[in-house]
Amino acid sequence: MDAQKITAATVRADFNDSVAVAHYARAAHFLGLWESERILIERFFPDKAAPLLEAGCGAGRATLGLWQLGFTQITAFDFAEELVEQAGYLAAERGATAITLLVADATDLKKSHPLRDTVFFGALFFFNGLMQIPGREHRRAALRELHRVCALGAPFLFTTHDRDASPTERVLWRLETERWVHAVQDPRLVEFGDRYFEDEAGRTFMHLPDRAEILADLAATGWTHEYDAMRTELARESRAVRDFSDECRFWVARKH
Ligand SMILES: C[S@@+](CC[C@H](N)C(=O)[O-])C[C@H]1O[C@@H](n2cnc3c(N)ncnc32)[C@H](O)[C@@H]1O
Questions:
Q1: 248 φ, ψ (degrees, to nearest 5)
Q2: Which of 102, 139, 168, 234 can pair with 36 through a Cys bridge, CB separation 3.0 to 4.6 Å?
Q3: Is the C-beta atom of 58 inside 6 A of ligand 1?
Q4: What does the pLDDT look like over 16-34, one tens digit per residue?
Q5: How far is the CA of 178 from the centre of ligand 1 (A)?
Q6: How confident is residue 231, by pLDDT bands cut at 50, 70 and 90?
Q7: Domain boundaries along the sequence of the chain
Q8: 205 lines ligand 1 (CB under 6 A)
Q9: Ligand 1 centroid to 167 CA: how many Å?
Q10: Ligand 1 pocket check: which of 26, 33, 52, 57 to mutate, most ligand atoms within 8 Å of Cβ?
Q11: Whose C-alpha lies nearest to ligand 1, atom 16?
Q12: Ligand 1 atom 10: the closest Cα is on which residue?
């Protein structure tokens, strides 16, 4: 029997699984914003009263971090309802009741009533969440949706991995290229660059792009690329942050 391809439903079920929920809730309670995230938020999101939209908020790790930085109009959503519920508990515990938390899918925000008519002055998709959408067309749909709900001039901050970031990565991806050429890759994967693995965070689907792919996706969806850098170029993160998350590339695009 053919292995089932990974879909959005697979990813959503994996994030609703108790192992992932415990992992992301722990990070929301104890880790908070990374230093690199804080630096870029302060650089590109100067207006703390601006309505912000955070996609893929999970259990609220960065959401509560934004609130602690002084942002007053935060709307955050995720398609994994178990994680949104955790974010709600944490917001209540910290007295951050002004944060709006929603269950919604980044690839189709029109389905979420509160998101249909609101205009945001900034968007964020932290910790590679955009890359956890299987299929390039679906990732582009999410980019288009975030672009549509943002005002002109709005910044969009997100992260990805980078297949070319290190010599080791380049060797591993050369081997993976061979597997795709000979059609012996993991049959559940949708595209070259995908990975599906299991660790202490549960099962994880991740698409690892190269830099050219993201530049093309931004251009195709109306975003103007403004900035990108690897996390190690921005900050030396604590051991706890490095244990929680690998090196990644930060991106800032703007709606013009
Ligand atoms: C790696 S987790 C990061 C969670 C949180 N932002 C953090 O940094 O701890 C990525 C999040 O993106 C969410 N996500 C993935 N695809 C999504 C989609 N199409 N719509 C909304 N959320 C999505 C997942 O459910 C997950 O919570």
A1: -150, 170
A2: 234
A3: yes
A4: 999 999 999 999 999 999 9
A5: 30
A6: very high
A7: 8-255
A8: no
A9: 28
A10: 57
A11: 133
A12: 129
pTM, two decimals, is 0.97
* pLDDT band at 113; cut points 50, 70, 90: confident
In the reported structure, the alpha carbon of residue 64 is separated from the centroid of ligand 1 by a whole-number distance in angstroms of: 15
Q: Homologous superfamily of 8-255 in CATH? A: Vaccinia Virus protein VP39 (3.40.50.150)
Q: Token pair for residue 11?
A: 């990813």
